[in-house]
Amino acid sequence: MAEQARGRLAGKVAIITGAGSGIGRAMALLFAREGATVVAAGRTPASIEETVAMIRAETGGEALAVAADVAIPADVERMVRETVARFGRIDILCNNAGIGSSKDVVAVEPDEWDRVFAVNVRGVYLGCKYALPHMLAQGGGSIINTASVLALVGAPERAAYCASKGAVVALTRQIAVEYADRGIRCNCLCPTTVDTPWVDRLLADAPDPVARRRALEERQPMGRLATAEDVAAAALYLASDDAAFVTGTAMVIDGGLSAR
Ligand code: NAP
Q1: What residues are in contact with ligand 1 under a 6 Å CB criterion?
Q2: Domain limits for position 200
Q3: Is residue 8 part of a domain?
Q4: Residue 44 alpha carbon to ligand 1 centre in Å
Q5: Are 108 and 45 in the same domain?
Q6: Residue 228: which residues within 8 A CB-CB, separation 6 or more?
Q7: Same domain for 137 and 204?
Q8: Residue 12: phi, psi to the nearest 5?
Q9: Is 179 annotated as catalytic?
Q10: CA of 198 to the centre of ligand 1 (A)
């Protein structure tokens, strides 16, 4: 007889976008350890295939890589269709893929503004648009959107990024209210700076990467950056039945940054 899957997400099917690196990969690995079947979605096939290989090697669990650009409706529709065709359902959707922008409101050009919104906001909208009908038909589901603490506090040279993540928080609340009586929970994550390839890119652009890193750490009340695992742990809570009465929340994972 096949061994029963164990864990807080046993038997659940989770789609995670941006699963080829950073926070998305940490979510994919943690969810798989907790018994979920994981669909790792992202733009770069090699990265998401690597996440799937890591899941299989570590947990022996089922996982599928689906190449998809979250800003393209046909890609997101196919990501959902392939998930349902292969696994029959979608219990958890983590709209995690995102891009940054390091310009003030005067410097940022319309094309960059639109690209940030296409990935960070339209990507979340499209994921919900195509996954929700399946979740509603099966009687419920949990959506977790990766926003940022910069949705809640301002930061210099982040005009498009702050605005886009603010929109993610607002859409999260709207969806939570719309579907609360139909078994759908929708929450978002608001992390401070997370030590992922995202930060590696920030540092690579800095004139003095060591000093820049120190400055980022000193800004944090706990004296360190968040880890991808810190954020994945919050996502696991929101995805699991432990959070059965939690919807519409913007969960801050910032080591106290926004409490100052
Ligand atoms: P990351 O390592 O750069 O991961 C971002 C992922 O998103 C990559 O795997 C990337 O894949 C994918 N992606 C980007 N554009 C995409 C698109 N159009 N379609 C599909 N996938 C796309 O950075 P991370 O730190 O894990 O970021 C994950 C999320 O956390 C983002 O939404 C970000 O805004 C948010 N966040 C990050 C921080 C931080 O300091 N790191 C803080 C707060 C919030 P490709 O490389 O293949 O494009």
Answers
A1: 17-18, 20-24, 42-44, 47, 69-71, 96-99, 119, 146, 148, 191, 193-194, 196-199
A2: 195-225
A3: no
A4: 12
A5: yes
A6: 22, 23, 25, 26, 194, 195, 196
A7: no
A8: -95, 150
A9: no
A10: 7
